[in-house]
Amino acid sequence: MHLTFSAALTNNPRTWPILDGRVKVEGIDLVPTVLHPSELFWRQLRFAEFDIAEMSLSSLLAARAKGDDRFIGIPVFTTRRFFHTSILARRDAGINVPADLRGKRVGVPEYQQTAALWTRGVLQHEFGVRDRDMEFWMERLPERSHGGATGFKAPPGVTVHFIPAEKNIGSMMLSGELQAVVHYLAHRDPANQNLVDRSTADLRSHADIKTLFPDPVAEGVRYYKKTGVYPINHGMVIKRELYEKHPWAVLNILKAFNKANEIADRERAAHAEYYFETGILPNDAKKAFAVPLLHHGVAPNRKTLETIAQMSNEQGLTPRVLKVEELFALNTVEAH
Question: Which one, 8, 119, 257, 260, has the greatest CB density within 10 A?
Answer without folding.
Answer: 257
